């Protein structure tokens, strides 16, 4: 008997944290071929995946023709679109040119760019006759979930792509699942700062210690959850993905940080405006934070959680990850 026929998964964004995790996970599965798309096939990240056995294809989310080629004969696609690259590039340009008033809002441009990229990829995926599963890495659309009380361009853009797939591409939607990742384990919101006024470490957030945050080790865990969505779960699943015992209150987060760092930590509830004006944090990063406590991480979205998966995904908890870190690295995060 010959070798069993392998299926092909195309990973869009494989040189990033999420896509890299998905590519590495599927490269370990003997019944899958992994094809990754990248704008720079010669990058170190792309070359490292090629050395592991991945097929490298040049493609650009702004070029539908390249996506059509990259998606040929795919059985599964993992799609992650990127808001932050556009946002950071435009913000850096504004700072360098000191044109804060004469250029478009970087967050609005990044929103439009990400939505365009998501639609291009979805349209291309919808034309692949062999496709069985699409998994899109989404975020809850904050404006929609809160009745426009709060806005988050980087979340609303992904929410707009979800809406486009579900409303404009019904046949593709029947093959699609969505993964909503918790906060990255390296997210700055999970680390306090050293308060120069008294030399103590302190969280400054527009939340109370009762607010809950799901946390995920994106490099290690994303691929495991995507594999479960593709191989075990029915299409149409919306998964809130976070690590074992890692849907934590900020009280829990404070306790774990203190234990791992060996330092006491305080928690101070402040306003969004305070963070923006006193700490110079861009509003795009913080304006919707109060919604976390008021509406929850996924609001009224009908999601399943890791414990609801048909096959258990075993991951290291955020506490275990923190306890394994060097104390100096924790304090400097």
From TrEMBL:
<comment type="similarity">
    <text>Belongs to the NmrA-type oxidoreductase family.</text>
</comment>
<protein>
    <recommendedName>
        <fullName>NmrA-like domain-containing protein</fullName>
    </recommendedName>
</protein>
<feature type="domain" description="NmrA-like">
    <location>
        <begin position="6"/>
        <end position="301"/>
    </location>
</feature>
<dbReference type="Pfam" id="PF05368">
    <property type="entry name" value="NmrA"/>
</dbReference>
<dbReference type="GO" id="GO:0005634">
    <property type="term" value="C:nucleus"/>
</dbReference>
<dbReference type="InterPro" id="IPR051164">
    <property type="entry name" value="NmrA-like_oxidored"/>
</dbReference>
<keyword id="KW-0521">NADP</keyword>
<dbReference type="InterPro" id="IPR036291">
    <property type="entry name" value="NAD(P)-bd_dom_sf"/>
</dbReference>
<dbReference type="InterPro" id="IPR008030">
    <property type="entry name" value="NmrA-like"/>
</dbReference>
């Amino acid at each position: 008997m010959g070798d069993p026929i392998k299926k092909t998964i195309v990973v869009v964004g494989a040189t990033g944290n999420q896509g890299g995790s998905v590519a590495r996970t599927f490269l370990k599965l003997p019944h899958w071929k992994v094809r990754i798309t990248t704008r720079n096939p010669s990058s170190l990240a792309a070359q490292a995946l090629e050395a592991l056995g991945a097929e490298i294809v040049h493609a650009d989310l702004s070029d539908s023709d390249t996506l059509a080629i990259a998606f040929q004969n795919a059985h599964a696609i993992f799609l992650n679109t990127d808001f932050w690259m556009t946002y950071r590039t435009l913000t850096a340009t504004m700072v360098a040119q000191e044109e804060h008033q004469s250029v478009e809002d970087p967050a609005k441009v990044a929103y439009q760019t990400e939505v365009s990229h998501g639609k291009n990829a979805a349209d291309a995926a919808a034309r692949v006759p062999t496709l069985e599963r699409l998994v899109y890495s989404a975020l809850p659309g904050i404006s929609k979930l809160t009745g426009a009380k709060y806005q988050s361009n980087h979340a609303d853009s992904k929410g707009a792509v979800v809406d486009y797939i579900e409303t404009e591409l019904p046949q593709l939607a029947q093959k699609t699942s969505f993964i909503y990742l918790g906060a990255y384990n390296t997210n700055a919101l999970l680390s306090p700062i050293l308060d120069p006024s008294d030399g103590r470490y302190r969280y400054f957030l527009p939340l109370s210690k009762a607010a809950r945050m799901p946390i995920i080790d994106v490099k290690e865990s994303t691929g495991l959850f995507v594999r479960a969505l593709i191989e075990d779960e029915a299409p149409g699943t919306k998964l809130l993905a976070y690590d074992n015992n890692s849907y934590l209150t900020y009280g829990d987060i404070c306790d774990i940080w203190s234990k791992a760092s060996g330092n006491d930590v305080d928690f101070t509830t402040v306003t969004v405006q305070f963070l923006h004006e006193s700490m110079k944090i861009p509003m795009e990063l913080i304006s919707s934070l109060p919604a976390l406590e008021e509406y929850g991480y996924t609001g009224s979205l009908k999601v399943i959680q890791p414990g609801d998966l048909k096959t258990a995904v075993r991951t290291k908890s955020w506490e275990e990850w923190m306890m394994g870190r060097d104390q100096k690295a924790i304090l400097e995060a």
